[in-house]
Amino acid sequence: METQNLTVVDINEETAIEAAYKNIPVATVNSHVVRLSVMTEPYFWHFHPESDESFLVLEGSVFIDLEDSTVELFPNQLFTIPKNVIHRTRPNGKRSVNLTFESQNITTVKVEI
């Protein structure tokens, strides 16, 4: 049994930071991981060859740039990016907080756009 999943995670405590970017695993569910992300600047363009990736916004709003469009997510909205789709995330404003759901063994491939 995973003891990490028997621990209470305080989202407010984990997100009370001034760092430009924080991305930490907060739970595992079967073969997937839930990550908590705090962003104050864009993440680089990339894709994941073997895993979809879902974003759930908790605070602020997040732009998810795709090659041909941009999606904006607000608190309590969820969006899934299929594997192999090139994308980047960036906060709309000074800061955003979201949960990301993805395979534990995810590979991130950086690309230049």
Can you offer a commentary on this structure?
The chain is mainly β. Helices cover 4% and strands 48% of the residues. The protein is built from one helix and ten strands. It has one helix spanning 11-14; strands at residues 21-29, 32-39, 46-47, 53-59, 62-66, 70-73, 78-81, 87-91, 96-103, 109-110. A five-stranded antiparallel beta sheet has the order 1-2-9-4-7, with no helix packed on it. It has a three-stranded antiparallel beta sheet with strand order 6-5-8, with no helix packed on it. Strands 3-10 form a two-stranded antiparallel sheet. The longest helix is centred in the N-terminal third of the chain and has 4 residues, at 11-14. It is globular, with a radius of gyration of 14 Å. The relative contact order is 0.28. The mean pLDDT is 92.
Supply the key terms.
single chain; 113 residues; mainly beta; five-stranded antiparallel sheet; three-stranded antiparallel sheet; 1 helix; 10 strands
- SSE string: HEEEEEEEEEE
Strand order of the main beta sheet, please? 1-2-9-4-7
The total count of helices amounts to 1
Helix/strand-derived category reads mainly beta
Number of strands: 10
Shape category? globular
In terms of DSSP E residues, the strand content is: over 45%
Mean pLDDT: 92
Summarize the structure.
The protein has 113 residues and is mainly beta.
Topology:
Elements: H1 11-14, E1 21-29, E2 32-39, E3 46-47, E4 53-59, E5 62-66, E6 70-73, E7 78-81, E8 87-91, E9 96-103, E10 109-110
Antiparallel strand pairs: 1-2, 2-9, 3-10, 4-7, 4-9, 5-6, 5-8
